[in-house]
Design a protein that fits this description.
The structure is a single chain. By secondary structure, the protein is mainly alpha-helical. The chain has 6 helices and no strands. α2 runs antiparallel to α3 and α3 packs antiparallel against α5.
Length: 153
Amino acid sequence: AVVSTQSTGCSLQIVSQPYLIVISWVIGVLACFANLVIIVKSIPDFKKTSGSAALMNKILIFFISIGDFLVGVYLVVISFISTEQKFWSEEKQHDYCKNQFQWLTSWGCATLGVLSSFGSEISLVSMTVLSLTRLIGISSGLVVKGLSSKELT
């Protein structure tokens, strides 16, 4: 029995449109390169930083870069797999639907899922903490000790 791809909900590739593959390559490579530069440049700055607030900001930006780097690696790997399926391997173009369950349960797919989720969570938590520390810093800077808001106006 032949099962059509329409009845299983399977597309022929992980990323099916060529322009999406190109965009994934560009964003993935730029994310890896730019964040690697930030990571490498941040490490020596930790020793030079004086003050706990400045050090906290640098550490949080460092963690955001690590998270975004991991997401960039995920995009590059998915782009590579999609490019291989779409352009390099004629036999793999139509094998994805037959092997979809194998791919989705493989260590490669699981590793990429963890990489993407972990990178996104690191960035999200770091950006939230960074935003909160800046909000607290701005809020506490606006309060003048001993004066009420009525006296300031």
